[in-house]
Every structure is written in C-alpha cells, then in structure tokens.
Amino acid sequence: MTGTSSGPVRWLVTGAAGMLGQDLLTVLAGDPAAEVTALGRADLDITDAAAVLAAVEGHHVVVNCAAWTNVDGAETAEEAATAVNGTGVRHLAAACAKTGARLLQVSTDYVLPGDATEPYAETAPTGPVNAYGRGKLVGEQAVAELLPEHGYVVRTAWLYGEHGKNFVATMLRLAAQRDSLDVVDDQQGQPTWSLALARQLVALGLAALAGQAPAGVYHGTGSGRTTWYGLAREAYRLSGLDPERIRPTTSAAYVTPAVRPAFSVLGHDRWADAGLSPLPDWREQLAEALATPVFAELGSVARSTESDRSQ
C-alpha cells in the first residue's frame, strides 16, 4: 500500500466501534502509509451535517460503517432509522463532494426485493421489502446523486466477525447450551467475514484514490451461496462439532417484525472493473475466521460440552 503523491493516505472510519469498523482499523494498522481517524457513535453523529463536514475535512478516503443496524426495530422507528442510514449518508456524501474525498458507503442486500433465482447484478433494480432496506436505499441514492465520480456503495450481507453479535458466534455459543438447534433452511445468501470485507474495502479505497476503480455499486459478499442451516452446519463441522445437531426448519417458524429477503445471492462482476478479485468462497472465509481467537475459544467450549454429553 502506498500513500498519495504528497504523503500518506488519510482515512476516516465512521462507526469505528462496530464489528466492521474495528476490523477496518486492524487492516489499516498494518499499512504504514495510512493515517487513520477512527470515530465511533459517541464521537460523531452523522445526522449532524456541520459535525460531519468538520470530520471529513482533510481526509482522502471516508469509509462509513456508521448505521442503524436494528432491522426489526426499524419497522416501528423508520424515521429514526432513515435519519441515520439515509440522511446521515447524504451529509457524508455532501461533505465528500465539498472536500474531494472518496466515500465508501457500506450498504446491504436488503435494498433488493429478494425474489430472484439467479445472483443479483450490481445494476439490478432495487425494491426493499422492509423499513431498514428502504432507509439504506435512501443512503445509496444520496451517494449516487452527490458523488457520481467519487462515491462507492458496497453492499454486504450475512456479516459475522469477532467484534459483535452475529449468527456464527451465536450458533457456537448455543452449541454449548443445547443438544440440537433448528435453523432456517429456506433463505439463501452469502456469509461474509467482516475482516475479509474490511480488507476488500481498503483495497477498493486505494484503487479509487488511484483512479483505477469506477464509482458506483459493488457487492461485498462471500462467493458461492448457502442457507442459514448450511452455514450453521459448516460452522459446526469446521469447529469439530457434530453437524447433525443442526436441524432444518422454515422461516414460518421464526416470524419477525421485518420481512427478510428469501434470496440474497449477489453477483460480483464489477470488481473486475476495479482490477480486484471478489471476496473468496464463503467456506474459505469461514475456515479462516473460525481459527481466530474469539471463534476458536467458542468452538473449544462447545467441543468440551459435546464431549461431556456423549459420556
């Protein structure tokens, strides 16, 4: 990694205390040419336009990980969710337009209708089925409108990592508490390790700064596809647990306030335009993730309890 012609690359990471934000800081810490400003929610309210402009000033690349992430909660607080995921993103895009910074906006598969049978292209028509998706789409539209040359939307899905609540960690914790688990097998998607996505975002930011990546939408999800049931079984298998403890069920058994898309498989063709490869296969990412300390410890505890049960 290299800095700009006049010195280091100055990065601003918003939402830096979250799962993806923390992984971004880890990746950037390994780059001697990076100068990083890390702002959590307590440091920057992205719904405050003046504060956003002041924060963006002096940076080359802004990666926005700040978001309202409570999908079900957005159903009864859509205005508040959209203030962060839509209006807040508009403030960031406006600030980047004024200062010349590149903006990488982390978005979601939930902006799509979820009724396809083949992977969604980056150019596929949007059509959110819940309040969270509608708010995130407002943010995407702001980036496209205000930063047609310097705005990048990276949609991700089924994110898991060491630094926050997520499906993989929950499955491993429950393995130490229950004999079996019923997991939904009628939603298809692409599990994505947050550290792998962080690496991809940094690579895209540098390509953008170098003029090598066209602006627009990219899909930052693991390659391949599976279901939540398939992900849970693979996490068990890789952790040395009995995958037969995972049993398939349907979405109808787990009704939630927000509708979830049934099909969240995304295409990855645009990475070639930026000279980058898509994220690796989801199984490859999962294997690497499960070897990291937090997941390894969860797996160890689960194996110990499984062994105790079998005796």
TrEMBL record:
Q: Where is the signal peptide?
A: none
Question: Which CDD domains does this chain map to?
Answer: dTDP_HR_like_SDR_e
What organism is the protein native to?
Kitasatospora purpeofusca
Arranged from A to Z, the UniProt key words for this protein are: NADP, Oxidoreductase
* Xref: Pfam families: RmlD_sub_bind (PF04321)
Tell me the superkingdom of the source.
Bacteria
- Alphabetized GO MF terms: dTDP-4-dehydrorhamnose reductase activity
Q: What is this protein called?
A: dTDP-4-dehydrorhamnose reductase
Cross-referenced InterPro entries: dTDP_dehydrorham_reduct (IPR005913), NAD(P)-bd_dom_sf (IPR036291), RmlD-like-bd (IPR029903)
Is-annotated flag, keyword Transmembrane helix? Answer: no
Q: Does the keyword Cell membrane apply?
A: no
Q: Which SUPFAM superfamilies match?
A: NAD(P)-binding Rossmann-fold domains
Describe the task this protein carries out.
Catalyzes the reduction of dTDP-6-deoxy-L-lyxo-4-hexulose to yield dTDP-L-rhamnose.
Enzyme Commission identifier(s)? 1.1.1.133
> Which pathway does the UniProt entry assign to this protein?
Carbohydrate biosynthesis; dTDP-L-rhamnose biosynthesis
- Domain named RmlD-like substrate binding is located at 11-291
| Family per similarity comment | Belongs to the dTDP-4-dehydrorhamnose reductase family.
The gene designation is: rfbD
